[in-house]
Amino acid sequence: MSTLRTTFEMGVREYARTPILLSLLAFLPVYLILVFHWVMPESRVTVDIPIQGAMSAEMTAVATVLTTPMAAAFVGGAAGLFLMQSASAVDGRLAIAGADAVEIVAARGGVLVLAALVGSVVSVGVLSAVMSVERLRWYLLAILLVALLYGGLGALVGLVLNRLAGVYVLLFGPFFDLFLAQSPLTDETHALAPFLPGHFPMKLAFDAALTARVVPRNLWFSLAYLAVLALVVGLGFRRGLRVD
Amino acid sequence: MTVSRPSSDRLRVGLDAAVREFVREPINVALLVVLPPVVITSYESMLSAFPRLPYMTTDPGALGATAGTLFVAAFLPAVIGLFQVISAQRADERLSLAGFPELALFVSRLGAVCLATLLTAALSLGVLATTTEVESLALGFLTLAFVGGLYGLIGMLIGTVLPRELEGSLVLIFVVDVDEALASGVIATDAAATKLFPLHYPHEVFQAAVDGTAPAASDVLAAATYGAIVLVATFLVYTALAATGGGGG
Amino acid sequence: MTERIVGTERPESESEPTAGDRDVVLRGSDLAKTYSSRLPFGRSVEVLTGASVTIRRGEVVGIVGGNGSGKSTLMKILVGELDADEGTVDVNGRVGWCPQDELLYDRLTVEETFRLFGEAYGMDPTEIESARDRLAETLDFEEFLDYRIDRLSGGNRQKINLSIALMHDPDVLLLDEPYTGFDWETYLAFWDLTAALRERGTAVAIISHLINEQERFDRILELADGTLTDVTDEGSSQAGEEGVR
């Protein structure tokens, strides 16, 4: 337990000593969300919200609700990708020194959760500055789930691909999933959309942002998706440490 | 004794080394070939589920195919530009100290990006042509190659200013995706500021190539001016920072 | 996949250990390793073809070989970082490993690096502090304890790399090109440290492409064509050509 705490603490310290990265984590969500909020016309659009069906909403609100999870997903995904890429070789030495592989995996997972949490809080904070959502805590939870899911996917990509290929995937993955496949601008669900990581948390996000009710089932499905992903990444990372 | 060599030799050697470095990672080449069809068909398929919204200029599926083609033509060279500069930074500093002219170094890096650009542009246009009738293939190809070069330079610029992979990649992801989402026509925009984004004018020109209409001279001029400014800015920043070891990070 | 036996246990098939065997702290037997290409028609490189090595308490063993002969691969297999395709590794005691590439967390300070690896070795805070101060004094990096690893010079990073391998008083120490970047004083301090370790019964295996002073070693093994040969008594004739100087 003590090794887990120390490994986690050192992981956080490593992140905390990257001032440029921390500035970017704060600035980039602001940029993404505010640009979309700014360029949207003052008009209403019909959107399809899971719990309510078709409803009319401000275009600016829809765009802001849509881009906030994208910002969190990019931050989480990049954190996951580079966590795997940068630490795994040295983590192997730590494991050979005697650190428990499960504790190393848990400590790295903890750092990833922290990065996803920061990305989510910053993103939702920016959103809160320009609009108010109906159920803020549920919305924040949905955004955190998106960030964690993409953090896990980033880590998975980091385990199997190199950095350049990982960045390719992160460039278009969240964009396709969150911006196109889960868009409320269409009432027709693409055949692929339910299998994508953003499906359930985005349903939760739109319900929480634009209506007063949420469907807990979307939370359970999101958590199940996350649990499977975390298991796969954890096992893959542990295998990479080459200890039994 | 130092023997001075013609600059064209140095350029060729530099370009050759940059290309070899890239292609010796098979996954890079595989993705360069695989991603255009995947991205374009996915984009088109996703948008086919959309109704034709009032602000959309064309059928959503066709809009998706066009936007996806521009997207892939932009982001593949952008990532290559970024990693070309970051991964080779220390070697470039050393080459510069060994007497390799900064201009030759810059052109070598840019040349490798341009080769990837041409390949991506041709592949993307080929994929698009299988589902959409592109009226002017030549203009379409030129526009995609321009977009690739433009974003390759932007990738190099980001890599020079922020020579760390995580930070540089994060910035690039946000820049490319915001630009693409705004230029795609999937959502309505009404602010004049959207015209300041790199893909705005090339998107107009590319749409004209697909439709077979003459592109507006103002769009072509604006895109060319944008490209020239980015080229000069990237060259100045690269020679000031990357090739001389002055980059941060 | 390497069969790896850690601790005092022996495979059931083996007979009772002799007195000499009881001194063995590390044994690699018939190790084979080939790096295969990821591409269908790419070249495979056969690095080890049946290398065997036995290291006993209190001896200093040099393992030499030309560039690319497989020295680092052998060491990675011995410490468990890499699996061999064939062969067994039998470890009897604690292993300390100083890799050729400094595997250290760039943005942690020297003090934090000791804390983290000390925890991994199962040391308590007092033991960690004591080991850190002792090694900092011996290898002369006391003034850098608050420095981040990525802000140290190459030589100082290598001192930390070596110290991390040593801090838990291992029974066998595997060092891959350990004195790269050391200044002369540190080089001498390193050998003083090695002599003290030998006195205490610690086995030390040093991998290097260049061995300057043969008299410092009890045995010298040469890795060539995928196997290890004892060249201690061959002087400089053969070894001179193959990298033992």
From TrEMBL, chain A:
The chain crosses the membrane at residues 20-40, 60-84, 105-130, 136-160, 167-185, 219-237. Keywords: Membrane, Transmembrane, Transmembrane helix. The keyword Disulfide bond does not apply. This is ABC-2 type transport system permease protein. It comes from Halobellus clavatus.
From TrEMBL, chain B:
The lineage of its organism: Archaea, Methanobacteriati, Methanobacteriota, Stenosarchaea group, Halobacteria. The chain crosses the membrane at residues 29-50, 62-86, 106-130, 137-162, 220-243. This is ABC-2 type transport system permease protein. It comes from the Archaea. Keywords: Membrane, Transmembrane, Transmembrane helix. It comes from Halobellus clavatus. The keyword Membrane applies.
UniProtKB/TrEMBL annotation, chain C:
Keywords: ATP-binding, Nucleotide-binding. It comes from the Archaea. GO terms for molecular function: ATP binding; ATP hydrolysis activity. Residues 1-21 are annotated as: Disordered. The keyword Nucleotide-binding applies. InterPro entries: AAA+_ATPase, ABC_transporter-like_ATP-bd, ABC_transporter-like_CS, P-loop_NTPase. Pfam families: ABC_tran. Residues 26-244 form the ABC transporter domain. CDD domains: ABC_DR_subfamily_A (cd03230). This is ABC transporter. The lineage of its organism: Archaea, Methanobacteriati, Methanobacteriota, Stenosarchaea group, Halobacteria.
